Amino acid sequence: MSTNPPAPGVPRPRTGPAAPVLSARGLSAGYGEGGPVVRGLDLDLRPGEVVTLLGPNGAGKTTTLLALSGALSPSGGTVSWNGRVTTAPLHQRARAGLAFVPEDRSVIMDLTVRENLRLGRADTGVALETFPELAGHLDRRAGLLSGGQQQMVALARALARRPAALLADELSLGLAPQLVERLLGAVRAAADGGLAVLLVEQHVRSALAVADRVIVLRHGQVAWSGPAAGVRADPDLLLGAYLPLA
Ligand SMILES: Nc1ncnc2c1ncn2[C@@H]1O[C@H](COP(=O)(O)OP(=O)(O)OP(=O)(O)O)[C@@H](O)[C@H]1O
After folding, report:
1. Could you give the ipTM of this predicted complex?
2. How far apart are alpha carbons 98 and 167 in whole angstroms?
3. Compositional bias (Pro residues) spans (predicted)?
Protein backbone atom coordinates (compact mmCIF):
# COMPACT_ATOMS: atom_id res chain seq x y z
CA MET A 1 0.00 0.00 0.00
CA SER A 2 1.34 3.45 -0.89
CA THR A 3 2.00 5.83 1.97
CA ASN A 4 2.40 8.87 -0.29
CA PRO A 5 -0.04 11.72 0.32
CA PRO A 6 -2.74 12.10 -2.35
CA ALA A 7 -1.83 14.35 -5.30
CA PRO A 8 -3.10 17.93 -5.07
CA GLY A 9 -6.77 18.15 -5.98
CA VAL A 10 -7.42 14.48 -5.15
CA PRO A 11 -9.72 14.28 -2.12
CA ARG A 12 -8.37 12.40 0.89
CA PRO A 13 -10.43 9.40 1.94
CA ARG A 14 -12.71 10.28 4.81
CA THR A 15 -11.90 8.55 8.07
CA GLY A 16 -14.55 9.97 10.38
CA PRO A 17 -16.23 8.05 13.18
CA ALA A 18 -18.25 4.95 12.25
CA ALA A 19 -21.95 5.47 11.57
CA PRO A 20 -24.14 4.98 14.66
CA VAL A 21 -25.86 1.62 15.11
CA LEU A 22 -28.49 3.07 17.43
CA SER A 23 -29.60 6.70 17.63
CA ALA A 24 -32.24 8.75 19.37
CA ARG A 25 -33.46 12.18 18.35
CA GLY A 26 -35.68 14.24 20.61
CA LEU A 27 -36.66 11.05 22.43
CA SER A 28 -39.32 11.43 25.10
CA ALA A 29 -40.88 8.61 27.09
CA GLY A 30 -42.89 8.08 30.25
CA TYR A 31 -45.66 6.16 31.91
CA GLY A 32 -49.38 6.85 31.60
CA GLU A 33 -50.77 10.21 32.58
CA GLY A 34 -47.72 11.40 34.45
CA GLY A 35 -46.11 13.04 31.39
CA PRO A 36 -42.68 12.17 30.00
CA VAL A 37 -39.90 11.30 32.45
CA VAL A 38 -37.30 11.43 29.65
CA ARG A 39 -37.48 14.54 27.54
CA GLY A 40 -35.86 15.43 24.23
CA LEU A 41 -32.91 13.04 24.41
CA ASP A 42 -30.38 12.95 21.55
CA LEU A 43 -27.93 10.06 21.54
CA ASP A 44 -25.69 8.14 19.11
CA LEU A 45 -24.16 4.75 19.85
CA ARG A 46 -21.31 3.77 17.52
CA PRO A 47 -19.59 0.42 16.98
CA GLY A 48 -16.68 -0.09 19.34
CA GLU A 49 -17.66 2.50 21.93
CA VAL A 50 -18.95 2.26 25.47
CA VAL A 51 -21.23 5.10 26.52
CA THR A 52 -22.21 5.24 30.16
CA LEU A 53 -25.47 6.85 31.20
CA LEU A 54 -25.21 8.22 34.71
CA GLY A 55 -27.52 10.22 36.92
CA PRO A 56 -29.25 10.27 40.28
CA ASN A 57 -32.11 7.94 41.20
CA GLY A 58 -35.22 8.67 39.19
CA ALA A 59 -33.35 10.66 36.50
CA GLY A 60 -34.80 8.48 33.73
CA LYS A 61 -31.90 6.12 32.92
CA THR A 62 -33.94 2.90 32.92
CA THR A 63 -36.74 4.62 31.03
CA THR A 64 -34.21 5.64 28.35
CA LEU A 65 -33.03 2.04 27.94
CA LEU A 66 -36.61 0.78 27.78
CA ALA A 67 -37.48 3.29 25.05
CA LEU A 68 -34.31 2.52 23.07
CA SER A 69 -34.94 -1.24 23.34
CA GLY A 70 -38.51 -1.08 22.08
CA ALA A 71 -39.93 -2.29 25.40
CA LEU A 72 -41.58 1.11 25.94
CA SER A 73 -43.11 3.21 23.15
CA PRO A 74 -41.72 6.75 23.02
CA SER A 75 -44.17 9.58 23.54
CA GLY A 76 -42.09 11.77 21.22
CA GLY A 77 -39.02 11.77 19.00
CA THR A 78 -37.45 8.86 17.15
CA VAL A 79 -35.18 5.86 17.61
CA SER A 80 -33.11 4.72 14.62
CA TRP A 81 -31.38 1.41 14.01
CA ASN A 82 -28.57 1.53 11.45
CA GLY A 83 -29.83 4.89 10.22
CA ARG A 84 -33.49 3.90 9.82
CA VAL A 85 -36.24 5.05 12.14
CA THR A 86 -37.73 2.06 13.94
CA THR A 87 -40.85 1.48 15.99
CA ALA A 88 -40.26 -2.30 16.13
CA PRO A 89 -40.96 -4.04 19.44
CA LEU A 90 -38.18 -5.47 21.61
CA HIS A 91 -38.19 -9.01 20.18
CA GLN A 92 -37.78 -7.71 16.62
CA ARG A 93 -34.94 -5.41 17.63
CA ALA A 94 -33.33 -8.37 19.40
CA ARG A 95 -33.48 -10.37 16.19
CA ALA A 96 -31.91 -7.46 14.32
CA GLY A 97 -28.94 -7.46 16.72
CA LEU A 98 -29.90 -5.40 19.78
CA ALA A 99 -29.19 -7.03 23.14
CA PHE A 100 -30.86 -5.74 26.30
CA VAL A 101 -29.85 -6.88 29.78
CA PRO A 102 -32.49 -5.39 32.11
CA GLU A 103 -31.95 -4.70 35.78
CA ASP A 104 -33.73 -7.89 36.89
CA ARG A 105 -31.27 -10.00 34.81
CA SER A 106 -34.05 -12.08 33.24
CA VAL A 107 -32.37 -15.31 34.29
CA ILE A 108 -34.92 -18.07 34.81
CA MET A 109 -34.10 -19.49 38.21
CA ASP A 110 -35.74 -22.90 37.70
CA LEU A 111 -33.78 -23.63 34.53
CA THR A 112 -30.15 -24.73 34.37
CA VAL A 113 -27.45 -22.43 33.07
CA ARG A 114 -27.33 -24.45 29.84
CA GLU A 115 -31.12 -24.12 29.42
CA ASN A 116 -30.97 -20.37 30.11
CA LEU A 117 -28.33 -19.98 27.41
CA ARG A 118 -30.33 -22.10 24.97
CA LEU A 119 -33.47 -20.08 25.70
CA GLY A 120 -31.61 -16.96 24.63
CA ARG A 121 -30.46 -18.83 21.48
CA ALA A 122 -26.93 -18.33 22.72
CA ASP A 123 -24.18 -20.69 21.61
CA THR A 124 -22.86 -22.31 24.81
CA GLY A 125 -19.30 -22.45 23.46
CA VAL A 126 -19.31 -18.74 22.68
CA ALA A 127 -20.84 -17.95 26.08
CA LEU A 128 -18.05 -19.91 27.80
CA GLU A 129 -15.43 -17.98 25.85
CA THR A 130 -16.71 -14.86 27.61
CA PHE A 131 -17.11 -16.45 31.05
CA PRO A 132 -15.15 -19.72 31.31
CA GLU A 133 -15.98 -19.73 35.03
CA LEU A 134 -19.52 -20.87 34.10
CA ALA A 135 -18.22 -24.14 32.61
CA GLY A 136 -18.57 -26.06 35.87
CA HIS A 137 -22.12 -24.80 36.41
CA LEU A 138 -23.82 -25.56 33.10
CA ASP A 139 -26.13 -28.19 34.57
CA ARG A 140 -26.90 -26.32 37.82
CA ARG A 141 -30.16 -24.52 38.31
CA ALA A 142 -29.59 -20.78 37.88
CA GLY A 143 -31.36 -20.18 41.20
CA LEU A 144 -28.50 -21.96 43.00
CA LEU A 145 -25.84 -19.64 41.57
CA SER A 146 -24.49 -16.52 43.26
CA GLY A 147 -25.75 -13.13 42.11
CA GLY A 148 -22.51 -12.57 40.23
CA GLN A 149 -22.76 -15.91 38.43
CA GLN A 150 -26.37 -15.17 37.50
CA GLN A 151 -25.29 -11.86 36.06
CA MET A 152 -22.58 -13.65 34.08
CA VAL A 153 -25.27 -15.94 32.63
CA ALA A 154 -27.38 -12.92 31.65
CA LEU A 155 -24.43 -11.13 30.05
CA ALA A 156 -22.98 -14.27 28.41
CA ARG A 157 -26.39 -15.03 26.93
CA ALA A 158 -26.62 -11.50 25.51
CA LEU A 159 -23.06 -11.40 24.13
CA ALA A 160 -23.03 -14.94 22.74
CA ARG A 161 -25.52 -13.91 20.07
CA ARG A 162 -22.90 -11.48 18.79
CA PRO A 163 -25.19 -8.46 18.89
CA ALA A 164 -24.36 -5.14 17.22
CA ALA A 165 -25.46 -3.13 20.26
CA LEU A 166 -25.88 -3.84 23.96
CA LEU A 167 -28.05 -1.93 26.44
CA ALA A 168 -27.24 -2.96 30.01
CA ASP A 169 -29.03 -1.74 33.13
CA GLU A 170 -27.12 -1.87 36.42
CA LEU A 171 -25.06 -4.97 35.64
CA SER A 172 -23.18 -4.49 38.87
CA LEU A 173 -26.14 -4.10 41.21
CA GLY A 174 -25.34 -5.67 44.58
CA LEU A 175 -22.09 -7.28 43.40
CA ALA A 176 -18.63 -7.22 44.94
CA PRO A 177 -16.08 -4.88 43.29
CA GLN A 178 -14.06 -7.76 41.78
CA LEU A 179 -17.14 -9.11 40.03
CA VAL A 180 -18.10 -5.66 38.82
CA GLU A 181 -14.66 -5.35 37.24
CA ARG A 182 -14.99 -8.80 35.69
CA LEU A 183 -18.39 -8.02 34.14
CA LEU A 184 -17.50 -4.55 32.92
CA GLY A 185 -14.18 -5.88 31.61
CA ALA A 186 -16.11 -8.39 29.49
CA VAL A 187 -18.28 -5.56 28.18
CA ARG A 188 -15.19 -3.50 27.33
CA ALA A 189 -13.63 -6.46 25.51
CA ALA A 190 -16.81 -6.95 23.47
CA ALA A 191 -16.78 -3.25 22.56
CA ASP A 192 -13.15 -3.53 21.50
CA GLY A 193 -14.41 -6.22 19.11
CA GLY A 194 -16.92 -3.77 17.58
CA LEU A 195 -19.97 -3.86 19.89
CA ALA A 196 -21.77 -0.57 20.60
CA VAL A 197 -22.63 -0.34 24.32
CA LEU A 198 -24.86 1.83 26.48
CA LEU A 199 -24.29 1.13 30.17
CA VAL A 200 -26.39 2.38 33.06
CA GLU A 201 -24.32 2.05 36.22
CA GLN A 202 -24.50 2.90 39.91
CA HIS A 203 -20.79 2.18 40.26
CA VAL A 204 -19.73 5.49 38.73
CA ARG A 205 -15.99 4.92 39.00
CA SER A 206 -16.16 1.40 37.54
CA ALA A 207 -18.30 2.65 34.67
CA LEU A 208 -15.91 5.52 33.98
CA ALA A 209 -13.00 3.08 33.87
CA VAL A 210 -14.43 1.26 30.83
CA ALA A 211 -16.35 4.07 29.12
CA ASP A 212 -15.42 6.19 26.12
CA ARG A 213 -18.17 8.73 26.64
CA VAL A 214 -20.40 9.85 29.49
CA ILE A 215 -23.94 11.18 29.45
CA VAL A 216 -25.41 12.50 32.68
CA LEU A 217 -29.18 12.64 32.95
CA ARG A 218 -31.01 14.87 35.41
CA HIS A 219 -34.77 15.16 35.56
CA GLY A 220 -34.99 13.27 32.26
CA GLN A 221 -32.70 15.59 30.33
CA VAL A 222 -29.02 15.58 29.42
CA ALA A 223 -27.24 17.65 32.06
CA TRP A 224 -23.70 16.90 30.86
CA SER A 225 -22.02 14.85 28.16
CA GLY A 226 -18.42 14.42 27.13
CA PRO A 227 -15.45 12.09 26.86
CA ALA A 228 -14.87 9.72 29.78
CA ALA A 229 -11.13 10.44 29.68
CA GLY A 230 -11.78 14.03 30.74
CA VAL A 231 -13.80 12.86 33.75
CA ARG A 232 -11.21 10.24 34.68
CA ALA A 233 -8.57 12.97 34.70
CA ASP A 234 -10.76 15.37 36.66
CA PRO A 235 -13.56 13.50 38.50
CA ASP A 236 -14.73 16.75 40.12
CA LEU A 237 -16.15 17.61 36.71
CA LEU A 238 -19.07 15.35 37.58
CA LEU A 239 -18.68 13.79 40.98
CA GLY A 240 -20.24 15.89 43.64
CA ALA A 241 -21.66 18.36 41.10
CA TYR A 242 -24.00 15.99 39.24
CA LEU A 243 -23.47 12.64 40.91
CA PRO A 244 -22.97 11.22 44.34
CA LEU A 245 -19.41 10.04 44.99
CA ALA A 246 -19.45 6.27 44.47
N1 LIG B 1 -43.51 1.60 35.58
C2 LIG B 1 -43.55 2.87 35.99
N3 LIG B 1 -44.71 3.52 36.16
C4 LIG B 1 -44.75 4.81 36.56
N5 LIG B 1 -43.65 5.56 36.82
C6 LIG B 1 -42.46 4.97 36.67
C7 LIG B 1 -42.34 3.59 36.25
N8 LIG B 1 -41.01 3.30 36.17
C9 LIG B 1 -40.34 4.41 36.54
N10 LIG B 1 -41.21 5.41 36.84
C11 LIG B 1 -40.84 6.76 37.25
O12 LIG B 1 -40.10 7.38 36.22
C13 LIG B 1 -39.04 8.18 36.75
C14 LIG B 1 -37.73 7.73 36.13
O15 LIG B 1 -37.48 6.39 36.53
P16 LIG B 1 -36.26 5.55 35.98
O17 LIG B 1 -36.37 4.18 36.57
O18 LIG B 1 -36.18 5.68 34.51
O19 LIG B 1 -35.03 6.32 36.63
P20 LIG B 1 -33.55 5.85 36.87
O21 LIG B 1 -32.68 7.01 36.53
O22 LIG B 1 -33.30 4.56 36.16
O23 LIG B 1 -33.54 5.63 38.44
P24 LIG B 1 -32.88 4.49 39.37
O25 LIG B 1 -31.42 4.80 39.40
O26 LIG B 1 -33.56 4.71 40.67
O27 LIG B 1 -33.20 3.16 38.74
C28 LIG B 1 -39.11 8.02 38.25
O29 LIG B 1 -39.77 9.12 38.79
C30 LIG B 1 -39.91 6.76 38.46
O31 LIG B 1 -40.64 6.80 39.65
Report:
1. 0.96
2. 8
3. 1-11
